[in-house]
Recover the amino acids of this structure.
């Protein structure tokens, strides 16, 4: 029976190798590795790398931002089609005898849905009939560009309010007050537009700056209350929305503001010298506001990603306590966030009265651009260029919805339902992932951007 002479050795049958033997073994392993790599020697088989097409397909059907957004649009379109069928009595009646003649239900449903979505596309992007008429000489080029013109017109103010909400999100604040800030912005821009007698170029500049100033003031109030008193910005901005709305209603009927030739609630018209110029002539509504919106998107992207203030803003949004420890003034940052957000929303409001949407103040002149800006910001993942694309999508839905209502008999409210469905599915990526059985994204986990203050 053999015993282990070295009790500390791991094996009872082998003695530990000396240092010289260990060095010789290491040298032999190195020589064998080098010999294996010589030309003419067979190389050991390794796992083949996946092809580029395979990698593309693997990432395409993963839970990344692009795939989830695209599939959310598909789901919204499908659910919208079902709602169209249910809401149409003629089509719905064909389902009462679907077992005897299923073709009637299928054909009528397809006709309704396809025509509705075709009109949505024709009213927002491109109309082949208008293009054919222009080529044949029976129509003008204005009809060809009319869908894009309408989409850009509706999208311009939404870009500003969406950026306003997104900027506050990135700073950890939930700016519900974009509606009120846009309302004060439209008031200030309109007052400057018909009360100040200025030359054309200067008049437009002053009116635009007045709208931005009005939004900044209305954003500064909840910002200073949040920074100094700790008051929650959601409650403050909601209350300020009501104050701005009722102030607009009161102001319109005051002497010097109300149109003296009218008895209803409408103000004087903004002077032509203060109106944003139209980009494609008087027949098409798209105006220079869309150019300002693109410039604002670039400015916000630069602010967030390239500037020191943007770094401080994002740091406060991620963790206010850590930012304060690092020497960042959280109080100052909160105020600046809301002021910048108010400026953007005020510019969105000024677009409504200085552009082609309206030329005078009415109680509904701002519409719902502030609240729609929240949806646009969420749809754009609170990133500036994403907000721009989301606003274009909402503008297209609005422009195409008008044609759907006129040509297909689909109610305009259904377009609002489509917008809500898109946001619901995008805001619930886990639901989309479960429905389509998406794999987890490799590069990064899908994250939903939420405000820290909410």
């Amino acid at each position: 029976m053999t015993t282990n002479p070295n009790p500390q050795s791991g094996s009872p049958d082998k003695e530990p190798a000396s240092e010289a033997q260990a060095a010789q073994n290491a040298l032999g392993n190195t020589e064998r590795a080098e010999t294996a790599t010589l030309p003419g020697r067979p190389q050991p088989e390794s796992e083949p790398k996946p092809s580029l097409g395979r990698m593309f397909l693997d990432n395409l059907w993963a839970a990344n931002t692009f795939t989830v957004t695209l599939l959310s649009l598909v789901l919204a379109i499908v659910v919208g089609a079902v709602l169209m069928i249910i809401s149409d009595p003629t089509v719905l009646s064909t389902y009462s005898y679907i077992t005897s003649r299923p073709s009637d239900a299928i054909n009528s449903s397809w006709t309704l849905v396809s025509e509705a979505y075709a009109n949505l596309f024709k009213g927002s992007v491109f109309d082949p009939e208008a293009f054919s008429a222009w080529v044949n000489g029976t129509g003008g080029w204005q009809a060809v560009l009319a869908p894009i013109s309408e989409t850009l017109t509706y999208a311009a103010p939404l870009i500003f309010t969406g950026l306003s909400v997104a900027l506050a999100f990135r700073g950890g604040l939930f700016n519900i007050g974009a509606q009120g800030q846009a309302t004060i912005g439209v008031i200030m821009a309109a007052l400057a537009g018909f009360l100040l007698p200025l030359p054309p170029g200067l008049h437009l500049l002053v009116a635009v700056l007045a709208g931005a100033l009005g939004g900044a003031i209305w954003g500064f109030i909840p910002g200073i209350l949040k920074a100094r008193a700790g008051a929650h910005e959601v409650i403050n901005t909601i209350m300020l929305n009501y104050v701005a709305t009722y102030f607009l209603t009161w102001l319109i009927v005051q002497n010097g503001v109300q149109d003296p030739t009218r008895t209803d609630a409408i103000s004087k018209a903004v002077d032509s010298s203060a109106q944003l110029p139209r980009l494609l002539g008087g027949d098409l509504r798209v105006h220079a506001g869309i150019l300002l919106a693109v410039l604002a998107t670039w400015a916000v992207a630069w602010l967030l990603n390239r500037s020191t203030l943007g770094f401080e803003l994002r740091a406060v949004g991620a963790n206010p306590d850590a930012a304060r420890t690092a020497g960042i003034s959280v109080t100052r940052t909160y105020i600046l966030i809301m002021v910048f957000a108010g400026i953007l929303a005020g510019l969105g409001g000024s677009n409504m009265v200085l552009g082609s949407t309206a030329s005078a103040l009415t109680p509904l002149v701002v519409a719902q651009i502030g609240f729609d800006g929240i949806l646009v910001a969420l749809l754009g993942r609170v990133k500036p260029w994403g907000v721009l694309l989301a606003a274009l999508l909402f503008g297209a839905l609005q422009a195409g919805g008008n044609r759907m209502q006129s040509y297909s008999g689909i109610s305009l409210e259904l377009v609002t339902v489509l917008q809500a469905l898109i946001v619901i599915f995008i805001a619930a990526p886990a639901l989309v992932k479960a429905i389509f059985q998406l794999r987890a994204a490799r590069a990064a986990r899908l994250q939903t951007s939420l405000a820290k203050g909410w």
Remarks:
- Residues 156-379 form one domain.
